[in-house]
Write a structure and sequence with these properties.
118 residues; alpha+beta; five-stranded antiparallel β-sheet
Length: 118
């Protein structure tokens, strides 16, 4: 009975250790690796896109575009306005305001109104 418990523990430990794998790719402390894609340190998000399908990976539309200030903080996030698949303007945008300590103080949301504009 004791031998079978030890054997079961040994088999379980072999499965656990064989399932652990190191991510592929070369990288150091100045870069980071996510899903085998190497990103430079302090990389900034430019846009979030909606895709047509996971298989094709084709971009259907841009959901949001990001702008940054001289200190690297988000300053504006805009959502493009599409008509018949083409960008015709900006549907809405957010302006980010920071205090003197670089802490986010306020996010102002502006939405386009067909009758009055922004």
């Amino acid at each position: 009975m004791k031998t079978s418990k030890i054997l079961i523990l040994f088999i379980l430990s072999v499965f656990l250790f064989s399932g652990c794998q190191k991510n592929s790719g070369d990288w150091d402390d100045s870069n980071y690796l996510i899903n085998d894609v190497l990103y430079p340190k302090n990389a900034k998000l430019k846009q979030v896109s909606g895709i047509e399908s996971i298989k094709s990976g084709k971009v259907r539309s841009v959901v949001a575009e990001y702008e940054y200030d001289e200190l690297g903080r988000i300053s504006k996030v805009s959502q493009p306005w599409y008509e018949t698949g083409n960008v015709i303007g900006v549907m809405s945008y957010d302006i980010y305001t920071y205090n003197d300590n670089s802490q986010l103080e306020k996010i102002m949301h502006y939405f386009y109104n067909l009758n009055a504009g922004f």
